[in-house]
Specification:
The chain is α/β, with parallel strands linked by helices. It has twelve helices and eleven strands. It is 40% helix and 18% strand. The chain is globular, with a radius of gyration of 19 Å. Bound molecules: adenosine monophosphate and manganese (II) ion (2 copies). The site of one manganese (II) ion (MN) has 5 residues, from α2.
Length: 325
């Protein structure tokens, strides 16, 4: 950890120690790291005697595969305090990733941002931001250590879920020896590894098979660009009787073809917006491509929400991949 990061963690710890009430928000469409990091820190704060309020922007739905993550103080975004005192934002690289809660973050008297996106815009009063952290949860663990707030089994489950999901089960290149050391401590503290793995990765509603089948049957390979892509629509999900939160793992199938370095899943929402999920095997900085489209993320896993058709969005990614070669 850099001296600078250590100083920021100490500064944030002091603010949290002194606060009576702490509000928390994570990015929209929370993944395991967003929800797990937020709840891990919030539960520890409550155990330390703080009043805690947690939320995330609309749609206010916890994906079914994260429904086991313990929660505390959870309120829908319209019940979040208009003018928060101390507010902690987790796993979001910019205020717009909070949807409507970005407004509340702007009103907070002290805004602490804990994040690991390389595209982080540097918002907030105290930014605990490290683009090399494998998950936001690694930074939360450092903060808990500084605070001497104990890691209970519940907190360990939250943080371990975050580590497991953001490292792709400890596979991605950001996974360091210290990531495994943290995981070992969390398992020792009571995180239930096989339960987390099964819940996150080995469960889906039956309709997932049909929705995924529809998306997979439309997959295209651009060999010149080394890009595999496909589209999934709100209509596919409706027919299959499932929600967006049920297809978070679909990109892991789209990315399988060996012929492609880059994989793209375009999700066409009812309101016409298209959400792009992008992955690279390591040959392309998809974070930079996502940032060019108004989104962000990491070098090899990134996303963006765009106002174009799915085909236009995929063409834009292919053009950007070719331009980056
Ligand atoms: P996903 O494809 O949704 O799993 O997202 C991959 C990575 O990109 C995650 O780290 C997200 O936080 C980030 N990301 C996804 N969508 C956006 C967006 N619209 N703006 C900024 N970052 C995003
Ligand atoms: Mn995330
Ligand atoms: Mn993350």
């Amino acid at each position: 950890m850099s001296a600078d990061l250590g100083r920021l963690i100490a500064e944030a710890a002091k603010v949290l120690e002194e606060a009576e009430e702490i509000t928390f928000a994570c990015h929209v469409g929370p993944d395991g790291d967003a929800l797990g990091s937020m709840m891990g820190l919030a539960i520890a704060a409550e155990n330390a005697g703080k009043k805690v309020i947690t939320s995330f922007g609309s749609p206010f739905i916890i994906p079914e595969n994260l429904s086991f993550v313990p929660t505390v103080g959870l309120v829908p975004p319209d019940e979040f305090p208009e003018n928060p005192g101390v507010m902690v934002v987790l796993d979001a690289g910019s205020a717009d990733r909070l949807a409507e809660l970005g407004h509340h973050a702007g009103n907070a008297s002290t805004l602490i941002v804990i994040d690991h996106h390389v595209t982080n815009e540097g918002f907030g009063d105290i930014g605990i931001v490290d683009g090399e952290a494998a998950a936001t949860a690694e930074l939360v663990a450092e903060l808990l250590r500084e605070l001497r707030w104990p890691v209970t089994a519940e907190i360990a489950t939250c943080l371990h879920t975050a580590l497991v999901t953001d490292t792709g089960r400890f596979q991605y290149s950001a996974t360091k020896p210290s990531t495994f050391q943290l995981a070992a401590g969390l398992v020792a503290a009571g995180a239930n590894t096989d339960y987390i793995g099964q819940y996150v990765y080995e469960r889906a509603p039956f309709g997932y098979l049909h929705a995924a089948g529809a998306a997979l049957s439309r997959a295209q390979l651009d060999e010149d660009a080394s890009v595999v892509s496909t589209v999934i629509t709100a209509d596919d999900l409706k027919k299959a009787g499932i929600d967006w939160g049920d297809i978070d793992n679909l990109i892991n199938t789209i990315r399988l073809p060996v012929e492609a370095d880059v994989s793209v899943l375009a999700k066409t929402h009812d309101d016409g917006r298209v959400k792009l999920s992008m992955r690279s095997r390591g040959g392309t900085d998809v974070g930079a491509i996502a940032a060019g489209l108004g989104g962000g993320g990491h070098r090899f896993a990134a996303g963006a929400t765009v106002e174009m058709t799915a085909d236009e969005a995929i063409s834009a990614v292919i053009a950007a991949v070719k331009a980056a070669k």
